[in-house]
Amino acid sequence: MTRSNGERLLEANGVELCVETFGDRAHPAILFIDGAAASMLWWESGLCERIAARDRFVVRYDNRDTGRSTSYPPGRGEYTFSDLARDAVGILDVLGVRRAHVVCRSWGGGIGYIAAVDHPDRVASMTFVSTSTDEPGLPPPSPRLAERSAPAPDPSDRTAVVDYVVATARAYAGDSVYFNESATRALVERDVARTRDIASMLANHYGAELDGPTGGGYADITVPTLVVHGDRDPVFPLPHAEALRDAIPGAELLVLAGVGHELPEPVWDVFVEALVAHTDGGRS
After folding, report:
1. Fewer Cβ atoms within 10 Å of its own Cβ: the N or the C terminal residue of the chain?
2. CA distance 72 to 5
3. Would you call 230 helix, strand, or coil by DSSP?
């Protein structure tokens, strides 16, 4: 496996962002963007190492209000998805990466969407994981999602926060055959321990303005696009992925059997093979 090059704090787009890279920067770059309240740890290091071992330069980072990156007072994030897309481009600038293959998940799909449309010269390909176009008429979340969700914890009680995030991850996995509670708890404990402000992490992303791209829509994404989705996703049922595939010219859909709103280790081999093939095409 190709090990981490280590975390670093860098200045990009006027904020401090924590970034970690894997592999040789001479290889094609893959930039991972995660979802709401999720630090870069949710793109697990083992997955990043597997991809880097396939001659890719992997970049993961903490979005604002997660992990070690810039944090705002709870309820006062006051940034837009366009700001977050500029953060991603700013990271590429600091790392000296001209173009990256962007992989975005869930809520982070909105960030990748803006990057692809408004910063097309910086995006070599797109991969959307467990996300949606959010267009009218798509099926709502599973009713069981609310039934399985836990009440919000006291942010000062770290044990309660860990329990809450684990319960949320379990609910989002839905009827997945792969959810691993012990591994998830270990990840959450590491995540909570390194987070600057837990209250902000739990709240601020949900107040960010989803402003959308200014340069067009999904039909204007011209780079190769892969949509990856679990067939048991309770947050965005599979028709969301089909709508996303249909909205982007030439997009392809990879359905992960038995998977919810997650990317569990038992399907990493399938995901890595698909991503390596999708990002084949030389140095970026």
Report:
1. N
2. 28
3. strand
Whether 107 has a pLDDT exceeding 80, the answer reads yes
pLDDT in tens, 150-163: 889 999 999 999 99
Q: Are 51 and 58 in contact (CB under 8 A)?
A: yes
- Please give the residue range of the domain that contains residue 57: 4-278
Instruction: Judge whether 83 lies within some domain.
Output: yes
Residue 252 lies in a domain: yes
Within-domain flag for 284: no
Report the distance separating Cα 59 and Cα 62, nearest Å: 11
Query: Using an 8 Å Cβ cutoff, are 95 and 101 in contact?
Result: no
Q: What is the total count of domains within the chain?
A: 1
Q: Per DSSP, what are the bridge partners of residue 33?
A: 104
User: Residue 151 sits in a domain of what CATH number?
Assistant: 3.40.50.1820
Q: For the whole model, what pTM was predicted?
A: 0.97
Cβ neighbors of 284 (< 8 A, separation 6 or more) are: 28, 29, 97, 98, 99, 100, 101, 124
User: Which residues are known catalytic residues?
Assistant: 106, 233, 261
Tokens of residue 207, six digits:
């107040």
